[in-house]
Amino acid sequence: MNRAEIPFVDWLARRLAKAGLRRAFGMPGGGTSLDLITALRAAGVDTVISAREDAAVIMAGVSGILAGGPGLAFTTKGPGLASAANGLASAALDRMPALLVSEGFDQAELDFITHQVISQPDMVAPLLRPVGGAAMAARQDAVEEWLTGDGHGPAVLFPLSADLGRPVPAGTGPAAQSAPEAPDLGPAQSLVDRCRCPVVVVGLEAARAAVSPALRGFVDRLGAPVLCTYMAKGCIGDDDPHYAGIFTGGAIEQPCVAAADLIILVGLDPVELIRKPWPYDAPVLDLCERVYTPHYVTPAQRVVAPLPATLDVLGQTLKQSDWRPRDIAALRRNFLGGMGAGGDRLLSSAGVVKAAADAFAAAPRLSVDAGAHMFSACAFWPANAPRDILISNGLATMGFALPAAIAAALNDPTRGAVAMTGDGGLLMCLGELKTAAETNANLTVIVFNDGRLSLIDIKREERQMPDLGLSWAPPDFAVIARGFGFKAWRVDRDDDLAPALEAAASATGPRLVDVRIDSAGYGDQMRALRG
After folding, report:
1. Domains of the chain
2. Which end of the chain has fewer CB within 10 Å, C or N?
3. Per-residue confidence in pLDDT tens, the chain, 531 aa
């Protein structure tokens, strides 16, 4: 081997480390994944062995987002890759930069075996199409293409044993990037100049620290109400006087958006909106870095360019809107009142989230699972920076919160993380309690334990259907968590809630609070939110 060449697996580990990779997640097989782990450790990259492959991809994607670099997961062939499918779907629709390295089948094997054999590239290809990729071969240019691409979603490599030892140039790095051509902002500027009561809707694409200064400057100069999607929560902080609530495409934001004479979308990815038609007649100005098809709305004008530059240029000549601070404050109160509908009990979802926010004054990062509790979690947990709240709102998968919280806690051990999950979501990834314990992750799991699939059961009740077996005897998650080495508390009564949360907040390492939730207010809350 030439001095300037190294085995592909060593190049891959070093290249990913150079791009910012600090930690990889996965469940290995006995083949190439073991060689990958060895190379990663030699390159200074930690490896975390997860309980499930789908959770590993979620951890990798969240880790990449928070570290501002690539995320890496690894798995064995066949059943390992199949198990990773939901994680890949989450990475695709939640726009997470996760590279999955899956062991592959050598052609010689395929000539005589069928055991565990599936068409691996065909299985994952549909999950990669939302970000424009196909299954990638194990070669440098494919990795470079992914690393220097738009960073919105997953890719998969299938290295074979022969690939790992193949010599490649050691010094390959990112290709030089040409500066994007400056867009014509004249038509967009004209729209903004003519409006008097604009409303700003901030979406996932803007949920980056690099966008925050320009966005906040733009909003301050415009003086208009701002709604953030779930995944963009914190881009405009809860304590900002312009913050008016969460935008979902549902009912609760309509009093705000219906009053607008211009709707300004900043990085709105339509993957986040619920399945309802766009209800507004006001013209739309779409500021984005990528055009998604289909979209809920055809804008009057669209600017496709880096958001910081677009916002800076448009903001230079802004005049203050006609909105008054007290009007925006009233919209915010209306939003919070609707999100608290039916939730005046202490052990309601809203009551638990508010009590947790009070107890965890140090503001750890929050991850939220899909389910009825997510409405309260996103509404009442304070967020003042992008990604203060982590949620799967593109795929909206259950089983997201715990893996995401593990990744967040390992990324920033001092800040730590809180995972809010329903009992159904936790049951889907219960084995990751092992991962949290083995890594001594500084996280608290708060389980909204009502013994049913609440969100689905509400829809069943609205359709006046009979009991369909969507409830069960609530598990004692505190006992289960202690079996993994967690500190754990069970909350059955109002008086137990604050002491348990305060004890969890003052502790470190993995801990869990099992709250026997009163779900009576979920129906009112969902109707207020979605109509």
Report:
1. 5-166 (3.40.50.970), 186-335 (3.40.50.1220), 341-530 (3.40.50.970)
2. N
3. 565 788 989 999 999 999 999 999 999 998 889 999 999 999 999 999 999 999 999 999 999 999 999 999 999 988 999 999 999 999 999 999 999 998 877 666 666 777 777 777 878 887 774 333 344 444 788 888 888 876 668 888 887 776 777 778 876 555 555 556 667 899 999 999 999 999 999 999 999 999 999 999 999 999 999 999 999 999 999 999 999 999 988 888 999 999 999 999 999 999 999 888 898 999 999 999 999 888 889 999 999 999 999 999 999 989 999 999 999 999 999 999 888 765 667 888 899 999 999 999 988 999 999 988 998 999 999 999 999 999 999 999 999 999 999 999 999 999 999 999 999 999 999 999 999 999 999 999 999 998 767 777 777 777 888 877 767 788 999 999 999 999 999 999 999 999 999 999 999 999 999 999 876 666 666 666 666
| Residue with tokens 């979501």, as numbered in its chain | 425
Q: Is the bond preceding 294 in cis, omega lying within 30 degrees of 0?
A: yes
Contacts (Cβ under 8 Å, ≥6 apart) of 310: 183, 185, 287, 303
Token readout for 433 is 């309690």
Name the nearest CA neighbour of 421 among 388, 455, 395, 394.
455
